């Protein structure tokens, strides 16, 4: 199968490295990572990828400038491989610079093609919500670009950042996939101590604990490809059981997370408990000024500070960054600092030399992961 793992913009090289480490031979392209593989590779990517947004397989690629051409090609697609008996379908269609631009009409023709192939009436579920990601039935993603149509079958179901543990959120929550990308991009040695002094709902610390203990992010999830006719459910169950056997009983790294907001820490503890890592993280309600190193040897001071657009105003934000820099230099000498930054002006307040690891966006705000050696001159 032609497989594609979708990534947030800027995270493609990290995702390529992650899947390569999972023995999937792939290469990064704009928007994600592609490879040719079996159902087994799809299962592994869904179970283990911490960075992918979703995994899809390409089931049809053709040129169509008229609805006649679309219908002719659509009837050749092997729809019956991806739709279980009685399962509804869902379409997400985008069209750019193409003769066929009416996305609703494109979806309608595809629905008719599926009905003819499966010899039954097709139930079309509501519009798939990209943030919630809870597709009903089988989702097909259709992209038309300059009259070239690519049809993909979603293998994931709900978006992969929805690990299931984060029900309580603080202000300006960080997506699980982006938190994991920060840890990969830093990069973090899973035996080195880690401190997040502005942890919010705890996502960075929780992702770190799951990585350290080798807990797959997809361990307790149900994926769309498991409902496909002919899906090898026995192989999936064996893969999951093997993964369970690899999980460490305790994090080898000391992980500490704190926030001045007591409500945020309560949310973080609840989330950590659902993720099964509450015992691996030292939580505390405290200001940044009280943050201090944990564990043995130098580690990673990592955080996603407020940017100013959502929380507080500019002078207070500048002071916050300056304080983070002061605490880092005074207490964390020899450690590495990693943070998501909205701009160089605020980075300058830290007075720590920084280098960019990747650019992406968080909640629609352009950000970059920057890292620096604390105490370096």
N-to-C series of helices and strands: EHEEHEHEHEEHEHHEHEEHEHEE
Which architecture of the largest domain would the CATH scheme give at its second level? 3-Layer(aba) Sandwich
Structurally, the number of domains stands at 2
Overall strand count: 14
Q: What's the helical proportion of residues?
A: 25-40%
Main CATH class of the largest domain: Alpha Beta
Shape: elongated
Fill in the keyword field for this structure.
2 domains, Rossmann fold, VC0802-like, 7-stranded mixed beta sheet, 377 residues, alpha/beta
Describe the structure.
The longest helix has 18 residues, at 314-331. With 377 residues, the chain is an alpha/beta fold. A hairpin with a 2-residue loop joins strand 6 (138-145) and strand 7. The mean pLDDT is 93. The protein folds into 2 domains: 2-154, 2-Layer Sandwich (VC0802-like); 176-216 and 245-373, Vaccinia Virus protein VP39 (Rossmann fold). The protein contains 10 helices and 14 strands. The N and C termini lie far apart (51 Å). The strands form 2 sheets. Strands 2-3-1-4-7-6-5 form a 7-stranded mixed beta sheet. It has a 7-stranded mixed beta sheet with strand order 10-9-8-11-12-14-13. Helix 2 (39-48) runs parallel beside helix 7 and helix 5 (176-185) crosses helix 6 (203-212).
């Amino acid at each position: 199968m032609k497989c594609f793992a979708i990534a947030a913009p800027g995270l493609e090289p990290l995702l390529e490295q992650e899947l390569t480490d999972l023995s999937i031979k792939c290469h990064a392209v704009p928007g994600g990572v592609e490879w040719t593989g079996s159902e087994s590779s799809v299962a592994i990517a869904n179970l283990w990828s911490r960075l992918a947004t979703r995994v899809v397989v390409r089931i049809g690629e053709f040129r169509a400038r008229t609805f006649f051409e679309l219908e002719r090609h659509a009837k050749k697609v092997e729809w019956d491989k991806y739709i279980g008996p009685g399962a509804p379908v869902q379409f997400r269609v985008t069209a750019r610079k193409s003769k066929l631009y009416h996305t609703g009409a494109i979806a309608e023709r595809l629905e008719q093609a599926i009905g003819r192939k499966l010899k039954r009436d097709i139930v079309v579920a509501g519009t798939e919500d990209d943030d919630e990601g809870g597709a009903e039935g089988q989702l097909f993603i259709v992209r038309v670009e300059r009259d070239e149509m690519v049809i993909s079958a979603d293998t994931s179901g709900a978006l992969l950042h929805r690990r299931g543990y984060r029900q309580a959120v603080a202000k300006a929550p960080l997506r699980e996939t982006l938190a994991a990308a920060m840890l990969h991009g830093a990069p973090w040695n899973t035996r080195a101590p880690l401190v997040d002094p502005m942890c919010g709902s705890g996502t960075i610390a929780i992702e770190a604990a799951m990585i350290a203990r080798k807990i797959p992010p997809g361990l307790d999830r149900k994926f769309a490809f498991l409902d496909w006719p002919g899906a090898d459910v026995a192989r999936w169950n064996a893969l999951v059981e093997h993964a369970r056997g690899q999980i460490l009983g305790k994090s080898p790294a000391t992980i500490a997370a704190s926030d001045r907001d007591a409500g945020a820490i309560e949310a973080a503890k609840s989330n950590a408990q659902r993720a099964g890592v509450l015992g691996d993280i030292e939580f505390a309600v405290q200001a940044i000024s009280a943050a201090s190193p944990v564990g043995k040897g130098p580690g990673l001071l990592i955080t996603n500070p407020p940017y100013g657009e959502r929380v507080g105003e500019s002078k207070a934000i500048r002071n916050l960054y300056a304080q983070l820099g002061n605490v880092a230099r005074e207490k964390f000498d020899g450690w590495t600092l990693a943070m998501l930054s909205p701009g160089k002006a605020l980075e300058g307040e830290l007075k720590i030399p920084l280098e960019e690891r990747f650019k992406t966006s968080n909640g629609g705000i352009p950000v970059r992961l920057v890292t620096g050696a604390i105490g370096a001159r």
